[in-house]
Amino acid sequence: MTLPFKIGVLQLSMEPLHETVHMAQACDAAGFDVFWLAEAYPWWRKHSMEARSSTAATAIIARETRNIAIGWGIISPYTRHPVQIAMEARILQEAAGEGRFLLGLGASKIFMKEIGEGEKGREVGPATVMRESIEIIKAMLSGNEVKYEGKAFQAFAPALKPDAHVPRWQPPLYIGATGPVLQRLAGAMTQGLLTASITTPKFAAYSRGIMEEGAKKAGRDGAQLDLGCVVVGSVGEDPKTAREGAREMAAMYLANKVQNIKSSADKLLECAGLTMEEIQPIAGAMEKGGRKAAARAVSDTILDKVCPVAGSPKQCIEKLEEYRAAGCTQMMLELWGDHRLQQARLFGEKVLPHFHKK
């Protein structure tokens, strides 16, 4: 069985709630498959933006949309106990309904750094934290009795009574990861892997291989697992103007995220053909002058290396096909630039039909 190729939009929870809801509604109307909300972190205050709870926001978004699936892309067990994550997942199950909620979980090294490596970060490694979190979340959502004592977490809960009014289905669970250890864990334990921003087709192919290694070792069919790729996106009838939105988003990630995930980003950068020497001036511009200054430091050569889905509708289709050929089954586009609501509509009119007809 061939997995369907899904195209969604991802954004950070650093914008006012009404703007995020309007964007999700625009994506719903355009025919996108998933609206992913990644949890921002307080670092964004440097640039006049505020971190907001993605779990709270997605519950509202689920009620304010009709067809589009809603995804956590991602939240971290370093900021919430797995039992709390399961409790919040219950709300999304009820708000979105079966088939419309995707649970993305990741260590989020940037968030770990912001909060001092997290309460458990000094005791056990991220792989243990993630494995135990997944086991607890699945156990809680199963409704069975939970008696769990791990290295990072403990969890205890009686079994649900048969007459309890609660969803009885398990949402698809994904791991967001850049390094090979957690990518293999995604293959072994979940529905699939979500990669970091600045994913290129080459890194997508590499990541699918690592995920499938983990699946094979666990006796699972890796070909049936999703690979979600976070990619900068911007569309417009004028290709040059459309690329400018992608340039600004690429600048923000090259300036902070790639550097903050440190050694885990080595393969990401290698696949993009990027060096730290190329990134450093962008980071400096971001600190001194904000995201607009950082965008001006991103040359056309660097932008091409990032492999954005950007330009005219035809160019976006061509790039999306490149990612599909590399093994990506879930495109997670970070739309940026001017007139994002109109961009969503243009995607729906001139890009998405190309893929939905197949």
Q: Could you walk me through the main structural features you see in this protein, from its secondary elements to its overall organization?
A:
The model has no long low-confidence stretch (mean pLDDT about 90). β8, α7 (about 200-215) and β9 form a beta-alpha-beta unit. The protein is of the alpha/beta class. The protein has one domain (about 5-240, about 310-355): Luciferase-like domain (TIM Barrel). The longest helix is centred in the last third of the chain and has 22 residues, at about 240-260. Helix content is about 50%, strand content about 15%. The protein is globular.
Short summary of the structure?
The protein has one domain: TIM Barrel, CATH 3.20.20.30.
Summary keywords:
two-stranded antiparallel sheet; 16% strand; 49% helix
- Give the H and E element order: EHEHEHEHHEEEHEHEHHHHEHEHH
Q: Write out the strand line-up for the largest beta sheet, numbering strands in chain order.
A: 1-2-3-4-7-8-9-11
Summarize the main sheet.
8 strands, parallel, barrel
Please report the first level of CATH classification, the CATH class.
Alpha Beta
Q: Could you estimate the helical fraction of the residues in percent?
A: 40-55%
Radius of gyration: 19 Å
CATH topology: TIM Barrel
Q: Give the tally of β-strands.
A: 11
Distance between the termini: 15 Å
Name the CATH superfamily classification: Luciferase-like domain
Whole-number average pLDDT? Answer: 92
Strand content: 15-25%
Q: Provide the low-confidence segments as ranges.
A: none
Silhouette? globular
Number of helices: 14
Total of domains: 1
Architecture (CATH level 2) name: Alpha-Beta Barrel
